[in-house]
Amino acid sequence: MILNLVLIAMILAMLIPMYEAWQDDDIWQKMLAFASVATKTSIMILVVSVFRDDWMIGVVGVIILSVGNAGLMLLAHVIKRMNEV
């Protein structure tokens, strides 16, 4: 029961940056919103792994948390450079 409430609260918190980025046309705002969603998703995975006592799911959450945002920020930088030229 508590896990369900925590997950619902986390999902609602995950939707806030997406709504803000949807209203703005700036590419950096959109990329930051996606990075925020990736971070919050990995935190949700870690919470689920702690409640289920499954360390393999936790390892996946840590990999997403440590590597996932780097590729997204690199993509945002490439898109910004392409728009400048």
From TrEMBL:
Keyword line: Membrane, Transmembrane, Transmembrane helix
Transmembrane stretches, start-end: 6-22, 31-51, 57-79
Organism: Nostoc commune NIES-4072
Domain of life: Bacteria
UniProt-recorded name of the protein: Multiple resistance and pH regulation protein F
Taxonomic lineage of the native organism: Bacteria, Bacillati, Cyanobacteriota, Cyanophyceae, Nostocales
